[in-house]
Amino acid sequence: MSLIVNLYYTGKPGAAQAFVKEMEASGCAERIRQEAGNERYDYFQPLNDPDTILLIDQWADQASLDRHHASPMMQELADLREKYDLHMRVERMVPANDAPGDEKFLRK
């Protein structure tokens, strides 16, 4: 069963966007995408909140996410969050196809 983690990064004006630019330019985001068990690692910006960036981070299972959290890359992420003085809010979800009964509400 996949696990989706939505992370909302918020900071001073322009800070979250600068964080994402550095994550991509440094190759850190791509290295995370290449980790075993990573199924999605994509950034988005809410239309009504220019100082927040949403990261949709999807993993094959909890064990994959745990390996990611134990990797040296987490220190790199923490350093960048500190550099840009970002704060986070987190939501955990499961995909609709993993939630029996939800199919009847989806239009395909």
UniProtKB/TrEMBL annotation:
Domain ABM: 3-94
Name of protein: Antibiotic biosynthesis monooxygenase
Keyword presence, Chaperone: no
Matching Pfam families: ABM (PF03992)
Entries under PROSITE patterns matching the protein: ABM (PS51725)
Keywords, sorted A to Z: Monooxygenase, Oxidoreductase
Signal peptide: none
Transmembrane segments: none
GO function term, MF aspect, one: monooxygenase activity
Organism: Lactobacillus corticis
